[in-house]
Design brief:
By secondary structure, the chain is α/β, with parallel strands linked by helices. It has helices at 41-47, 51-54, 99-102, 144-147, 150-161, 178-189, 202-213, 231-237, 252-261, 284-289, 305-315, 333-341, and strands at 3-6, 14-17, 29-38, 61-62, 66-74, 86-89, 92-93, 113-114, 126-130, 134-136, 170-174, 194-198, 221-224, 242-247, 262-270, 294-297, 324-329, 347-351. It folds into 2 domains: 3-153 and 301-351, Alpha-Beta Complex (Quinone Oxidoreductase, Chain A, domain 1); 163-297, NAD(P)-binding Rossmann-like Domain (Rossmann fold, 3-Layer(aba) Sandwich), CATH 3.40.50. Helices cover 28% and strands 25% of the residues. The protein is globular, with a radius of gyration of 20 Å.
C-alpha cells in the first residue's frame, strides 16, 4: 500500500512508499480505508526531527494521526460496527486503568500512546485502530476534507471547553495557525462579546484579516499584529481587558502579553507549546496572583465529550471550510510540509486513494 513512513531518526527521513505492508486488525481492532488525512504541526516536527518528538519515536513508523475513512475489516470480537461505516478515530490510545483514566480524565492518561508516533498512523491507504476509539460521522455534516482534520478541530474545541465559557465575553485568540483559526471560528460561532486575533506571521495575519472581513459583524472581530498595536489600545477596545485568552502560539512574548491584557478574574487556556523549556512568566505575582487569573494547560481531546461537542457544533452550522487551503495526493506530503513551513498554507489535506 501507499504510505508515508518516517524511516530513520533524522531530519527529512519521511519516505513515500508504494509497497508498505498492508495492515490487518487484531482482536478488538478495526481497519479503516483512509479517505482523507490532514498534515498536523506534530507531523512537521516529526519530519524535521525536532527535539519535542525525537525522544518519543522509534522509527520506522508510518506517521499521521488526522483522518477519516470507511471501516473495511473487523477484528475478532468487534461488535457494533459494520463494514462501510464512515468514521474518524481518537488517535490517543489510553490504558483505561491508571488513576487519570479511572477518574474520567483519559486525555491525560499516564500511558498514552499516539497513532503516527508510537505506532503506525494514517498517512496510508489503511490504518488499524482499536474499535473503542472510532467515532461515527454523518457524511451530510462532515465531508471528507473536514473529517480529515477533526483531531485538530478537537484541540481547538477542547481549548474553548477549558474555560468557563466564551459567549458574551471578550476573547483573545493568540496565534492564527490552523488550530487558532479553528478556535476563532468556534468563538465567533458561540457569540463572544468581541474577538481579538493576534498574529505576527504575514501569511496567517492576512488569512485572519480575510476571514474577519467576510464575517457578518454579529461579533466584532479585530485582527492585530501585537508588534504594532499595544495592549493599552486593546484594553480600551475591550472594556479594560479581555476575559479569556486562548493561547495557540506557544510564543513567550504572546503568553506574557496575554497575562498583561487579561482583565482581573480572567482565564488563560494554553494549547501552544513554548519552544524553550526555561520560558519565564514575567511579573507573575502582579499579572497572575493579584489579578486572580485561572491558567489551564490543554492537551488532546476529552474522550469523548470533546468529540460530541465538536460534532454538535458542525451539525449546528460551524463553518471551517476556510481552514483547508490545499488538497494533495499522499505523495504530495513533502510539498505540503514545505507549504506549511513557508506559512503559505493553513491545513493541507492528503488523499491516499489518488495515485
Amino acid at each position: 500500500m501507499r504510505a508515508i513512513q518516517m524511516a530513520r531518526p533524522e531530519p527529512g527521513a519521511a519516505l513515500y512508499l508504494e509497497n508498505a505492508s498492508e495492515p490487518h486488525p487484531g482482536p478488538g481492532e478495526v481497519r479503516v480505508r483512509v479517505a482523507n488525512t490532514g498534515i498536523c504541526g506534530t507531523d512537521r516536527h516529526i519530519f524535521h526531527w525536532d527535539a519535542s518528538v525525537a525522544a518519543m519515536m522509534q522509527p520506522p513508523v508510518i506517521i499521521g494521526h488526522e483522518f477519516c475513512g470507511h471501516v473495511d475489516e473487523l477484528g475478532e470480537g468487534v461488535n457494533g460496527w459494520e463494514r462501510g461505516a464512515y468514521v474518524s478515530a481518537e488517535m490517543h490510545f489510553v490504558c483505561g486503568t491508571c488513576r487519570a483514566c479511572r477518574a474520567g480524565r483519559q486525555h491525560v492518561c499516564e500511558r498514552t500512546r499516539i497513532g503516527g508516533v508510537h505506532r503506525n498512523g494514517c498517512f496510508a491507504e489503511w490504518v488499524v485502530v482499536p474499535a473503542g476509539n472510532l467515532v461515527r460521522l454523518d457524511p451530510k455534516v462532515v465531508p471528507p476534507h473536514v473529517g480529515a482534520f477533526l483531531d485538530a478541530l478537537g484541540n481547538a474545541v477542547h481549548t474553548v471547553q477549558a474555560v468557563s465559557g466564551v459567549a458574551g465575553r471578550h476573547v483573545l485568540v493568540s496565534g492564527y495557525g490552523a488550530i487558532g483559526a479553528m478556535a476563532a471560528a468556534v468563538v465567533e460561532f458561540e457569540g463572544a462579546a468581541s474577538l481579538t486575533i493576534t498574529e505576527v506571521a504575514p501569511g496567517h495575519l492576512e488569512r485572519a484579516r480575510r476571514w474577519a472581513a467576510g464575517r457578518d459583524g454579529r461579533v466584532p472581530i479585530r485582527v492585530v499584529d501585537p508588534r504594532a498595536v499595544g495592549n493599552d489600545e486593546l484594553r480600551r477596545a475591550t472594556a479594560g481587558g479581555v476575559d479569556v485568552v486562548l493561547e495557540m502560539s506557544g510564543a513567550s512574548a504572546a503568553i506574557n502579553g496575554a497575562l498583561d491584557l487579561l482583565y482581573p478574574g480572567g482565564e488563560l487556556a494554553l494549547l501552544g507549546i513554548p519552544p524553550a523549556a526555561d520560558m519565564t512568566l514575567e511579573k507573575f505575582s502582579d499579572r497572575v496572583i493579584f489579578k486572580g487569573l485561572t491558567l489551564r494547560g490543554v492537551v488532546g481531546r476529552r474522550m469523548f465529550s470533546t468529540w460530541d461537542r465538536m460534532l454538535d457544533l458542525l451539525r449546528r452550522g460551524l463553518d471551517v471550510e476556510h481552514i483547508v487551503t490545499h488538497r494533495l495526493p499522499l505523495r504530495g506530503f513533502h510539498q505540503g510540509v514545505a507549504l506549511l513551513d513557508a506559512g503559505q498554507a493553513h491545513k493541507v489535506v492528503l488523499d491516499p486513494q489518488i495515485s
